[in-house]
Write a structure and sequence with these properties.
Layout (H helix, E strand, L loop, with lengths): L1 H23 L6 H21 L5 H24 L5 H20 L6
Length: about 110
């Protein structure tokens, strides 16, 4: 199961990178960031496809999407200087709380 979590975290990191590069691609007018988007999403979905072999699809996707939202927001803050207001931060804290609840209390984490 540890290997599954490592693959999922790698998929989340790749998705975070790819989504951050979407902005850097400037509407897919810049070649290298555009290629980074394609590569990042390819790695991410490949990893996710392996994770759902052993983890419930809905749970894997919730963790992937939820943590991806939080990490992309952090990257946007530090790479592009975009700030979040208090309601956005509270919402992201709720997302992380939801991921933790799923991980520690749900019996559907793996099948």
């Amino acid at each position: 199961m540890l290997n599954t979590w490592l693959i999922l975290l790698t998929a989340i990191a790749a998705e975070t990178f790819a989504t951050t590069m979407v902005k850097a691609s400037d509407g897919f007018t810049r070649l290298l960031p555009s290629l980074a988007v394609i590569a990042g999403y390819a790695v991410s979905f490949y990893g996710l496809s392996h994770v759902v072999r052993v983890m419930n699809l809905g749970v894997a996707y919730a963790i992937w999407a939820g943590l991806g939202i939080c990490f992309v927001s952090l990257m946007a803050r530090y790479v592009f200087g975009q700030r979040l207001d208090l309601p956005a931060l509270v919402g992201m804290a709720l997302i992380v709380t939801g991921v933790l609840i799923i991980q520690f209390f749900s019996r559907t984490v793996s099948h």
